[in-house]
Write a structure and sequence with these properties.
binds pyridoxal-5'-phosphate; about 40% helix; Aspartate Aminotransferase, domain 2; Aspartate Aminotransferase, domain 1
């Protein structure tokens, strides 16, 4: 059953973060950090156990073959831990990139000094199953394929299941960066059958930053022993210690874990992945419709728009300048995000965090006021932007 989302807005004067993490968290989540915990104490061990088992419940049927390993640090630490632990030293990864996070994963492989090939689709075009299948036929050394679930730099929702099918048909293994999607967009293990996936505390579960987690097949975690290049990012070692002692190997972010458990409670009350996803979808729909009414255009067609973050083209109107628009939005209580496209100017508005459709309507009103104050008469993008977008349809 999905309960109506209970939103707990930030205190007066605190701006909403329309950004994909850190994001706006509830008052209760922040309040949960007002206590100190001993990392070796039974109470904290129970918290770690609870965190691991609650996260596993979110992956659906088949979860008993998987385990959850939290890792200190931001999301990128987990991506690095996953690549370094599950890809054997003589393995080879096909990295599927269509934005900054795919490219960062490729850079991580570079640092690891392990073999990889990059399929770079540019700013936002989705990698498709067929082209992945063709690459796997040509390059038999590839052992793993890394898929970015929601590429947060454009906000595109990549076709994970389609790609995973192609990878499995070719007898290779799937690794997923579901950082900005996990907890709001279903990722069923029985469909995508991943070896491992990663996400972090400060995205769709709405916790505060400080750790991430790997969810991986138990047999693969066991087989990962000795693969890692790094002491602190060794998933097998972290898992083995947690299994044996209930503790994290090195100082855990205790307050962040306490906040995360509070955030998980709210996630369950909202109806889990389905309820959380429904609120974000509503946030996106209300915000996108309002922005389009103002004349703004999205980079992506509806089919590829994630309910996580949306990229808009900057208006062609000479009176528009992103920095000024940002400041105007900031004055009205909303922190937006610059875009990451290389070809045309853009900006992004996030849909995740403690916000609902009422807040999203205020965001649109703030954008309307900002345009008026700046003297922008049309929010329509330059012709070049629309040409760029045609590539998606092709
Ligand atoms: C947030 C995010 C990451 C991790 O970024 P950090 O800044 O290290 O937390 C990785 N991949 C994707 C797709 C993300 O959205």
């Amino acid at each position: 059953m999905t309960l109506p989302a209970k939103i707990n807005p930030p205190k007066l004067g605190e701006p909403y973060l329309l950004t994909p993490g850190p994001l706006t968290t509830s008052y209760e989540t922040k309040q949960a950090m007002l206590r100190d915990w001993g990392s070796w104490d039974d109470d904290f061990r129970a918290m770690t156990r609870s965190l691991r088992s609650q996260l596993l419940k979110l992956i659906g049927a088949g979860a008993e073959e998987y385990d959850c390993v939290p890792i200190q640090g931001s999301g990128s630490y987990c991506v690095e831990a996953m690549l370094g632990s599950f890809v054997p030293r003589d393995g080879k990864v096909l990295v599927l990139a269509n934005g900054a996070y795919g490219l960062r994963a490729a850079q991580t492989m570079e640092y690891l000094g392990r073999a990889y090939t990059l399929l770079d689709k540019g700013d936002y075009l989705p990698p498709r199953g067929e082209e992945v299948a063709a690459i796997l036929v040509d390059d038999t050394a590839i052992s793993h394929v890394l898929i970015i679930h929601c590429e947060t730099s454009s906000g595109i929702l990549n076709p994970v299941d389609e790609i995973a099918d192609a990878v499995h048909a070719a007898g290779r293994k799937v690794l997923i960066d579901s950082m900005s999607a996990f907890g709001a967009i279903p990722l069923e293990v029985q469909k995508s059958k991943y070896t491992a996936m990663v996400s972090s505390a400060n995205k769709c579960i709405e916790g505060v930053p400080g750790f991430g987690f790997v969810i991986a097949r138990k047999d693969e975690i066991e087989a990962a022993k000795g693969n890692s290049h790094s002491l602190s990012l060794d998933v097998h070692a972290q898992w083995a210690t947690m299994e044996k002692t209930g503790q994290w190997r090195f100082t855990p972010p205790t307050h962040v874990v306490a906040a995360f458990l509070e955030a998980l409670k709210a996630h369950a009350q909202e109806g889990g992945v389905e309820g959380r996803g429904a609120r974000y979808i509503r946030n996106r729909d209300v915000m996108v419709e309002g922005m389009r009414d103002l004349g703004f255009e999205t980079l992506l067609a509806n089919r590829w728009l994630s309910p996580i973050i949306v990229t808009f083209f900057c208006p062609a109107d000479e009176a528009f300048a992103f920095d000024e628009f940002y400041n105007q939005m900031r004055e009205r209580g909303f922190i937006i995000y610059p875009g990451k496209l290389t070809v045309v100017d853009s900006f992004r508005i996030g849909c995740i965090g403690q916000m609902d459709e009422h807040v999203m309507r205020q965001v649109v009103e703030a954008a309307r006021d900002a345009l008026a104050v700046m003297g922008v008469r049309s929010a329509a993008p330059p012709a070049k932007a629309l040409e760029e977008r045609k590539k998606l349809a092709a």
